[in-house]
Write a structure and sequence with these properties.
Helix content is 75%, strand content 0%. It is globular and about 45 Å long. The model has no long low-confidence stretch (mean pLDDT 89).
Length: 131
């Protein structure tokens, strides 16, 4: 059993089971990435996990954005900008890692962890009452 960078708790819940499950999967991917980092199993595990994080993040953001459209969420554009910003940041991390100019560091892991927890606890919580 590995260590968790993020542990799910009900404080992260947005009261929408589909999105809560997606957040749990994102946390799980991030925790597996963290354990690969701790185990120094860079190339073997980290590249596929970074790709999985990128793909699942895209899927999750599309799910949220579809819901925003369905419910005419008034802060959708602001939220979507935060999504775009994170996707760019994640792509930069992946490209740097693939170019071997970046070794996965605790700083990078902390950046990903902070972004995800802050995004769920601040941005995502804004739509809870609305949606």
């Amino acid at each position: 059993m590995g260590k968790n960078l993020i542990t799910w708790n009900e404080g992260y819940s947005v009261d929408i089971p589909e999105l809560d499950n997606q957040h749990k999967i994102l946390i799980s991917i991030l925790n597996r990435l963290y354990n690969s980092y701790l185990n120094k199993s860079h190339d073997k595990d980290i590249v596929p996990l970074l790709d999985e994080l990128k793909d699942y993040t895209k899927y999750h953001f599309e799910s949220e954005e579809r819901l925003f459209k369905e419910k005419n969420y008034p802060m959708a554009q602001e939220h979507i900008k935060a999504h775009e910003s994170f996707k760019e940041e994640l792509l930069t991390i992946i490209e740097s890692y693939n170019d071997l100019s970046l070794v996965l560091t605790m700083k990078t892991m902390t950046l990903l962890q902070r972004w995800l927890t802050n995004h769920i606890l601040k941005e995502d919580k804004k739509y809870v009452g609305y949606i």
